[in-house]
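#lab-general

N.A. 3:47 PM
ok so I finally got the sequence cleaned up, no stray characters, all 334 residues accounted for. can someone with queue access submit it? mine expired

B.Y. 3:52 PM
send it over

N.A. 3:53 PM
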Amino acid sequence: MINDILEPTDKSLFYSRGQSDDPKLGEFVLPYPEIDAEWDKSRVVIIGFTEERGVQRNKGIMGTAKAPDLIRKHLYRLNANDARQRLGIKKGSLIDAGNIKPGSTLEESQENLGKAVAYFLSQDYFVLVLGGGHETAFGHFLGYQYLQKPISVVNIDAHSDVRPLIDSKLGHSGSPFRQMLEYPDTVLQGQNLVEFGLQGYCNSVYAIDYLHTHKVNIVWYEDIAHQDLSVSFFNALRQLDSKQDLYVSIDTDSITGVDFPATSASPSQGFSVQQFYQCCTLLAHLHHLKSVDIVEYNPDKDIHEQSAKVIALGIWKFLIQKIGINITHFLPKG
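B.Y. 4:20 PM
back already:
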């Protein structure tokens, strides 16, 4: 049963001011498995993945396991509506499934995440996974593998994350896309993977040669740094099979460390926070996009939780565009 691998979200995170004229998102999100008669097909489920054993194996900076709930804290304190666009979140369209229960091994946790992703995708949810280290991505991928659904994937990242496995068997935060490509009877072919925003100084030539061998599409940050992000991103998508479901992984180390220092490996150059927001907005309009994860945010490196607020606002912008409806349909009159 799906409930056996999920830990409910702490109810204190579902923030409310208790004022009908100032509704907060925490009042409109439903904790799974509560149900509501007003559910419709435009529903998003949030799943937390509190793993960082992959970061530890990759000799990274620990702390990412704390990320999902801190992101929730700031997300659910935001307004349930965008007053400028007069769009709001309808109760029942946003579900919080809680966090994946940690397994005895990283691999067990990843398998459980895959089971949860597969379950919610099969129930027509849009899936949003909050990591965790980038080992989150392999567990996320397993959901599609279990369903035997061929997919296209975009990794928005300064790093390619195709490092070899430890002792040829242990995956980690630096190996998820190699694991996807080499999985037996994989649902991801190299030509349907885009590495978007890679940086020359963040990758070895061996990693890039590996990507070339597998015919992976590479978009270098240096080549698009001065272009409009939406143009660059849609150009990248044109290289993929638009008939396949799309999964996007956003590694927060794709954002410059000047704007966003709270990652396991923050780069000295990268996308701006405003470009991150632009990305979140444009993703909401991709009809073949079925799931997203946001990974590598490290609360231990966050100053006054500012980076958590950046992620929360990015998710809010995505949700408003993805499932927002005309505000007059659900707000109380008065």
